[in-house]
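Table S2 (continued). Query chain:
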Amino acid sequence: MGVSKEEITDLASRYISRDEITDFPFDGELFCLLSRELPDGKVLSDDEGWGFGGYAICIGYTFDEESKPHGKWIWMHYASLNSFPPQAQVLKLQPPHIVKGSFQNPERTHEIRMMKIDTKNLKDRNENKDKNAKNTEDNNQGRDNVVAFRPKKKK
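Corresponding output:
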């Protein structure tokens, strides 16, 4: 049985405040994974040490039926785009980690972030790009050529 975005948000709000909740990836949405190593005894700044871990598409979320209390752990199903064909994979996460988009491995040696990539505006961006290119072409048509090509002299 799938878990809705609202259910995940409600479960997470038991442990964190609503203003800590980010726009996390959900069904069919593209996201990327970033990771960094957490060295012992050293505190890293928020933007230090991150490496790109690849793109993925969220397939959905399901409850871990064995977890107590119900809803403590959720399986995130996604398709990794690091290989062809894409491979279905799962992550076992707690609701606060899902909505924050950040979690650590069990040994606490690596931190992983999930960043949702907004693809809704891509069509608008491409249309604006086409309009700008057309305007540039129209503006250049009335101008003299900057470079004048001369015919090669015959010997």
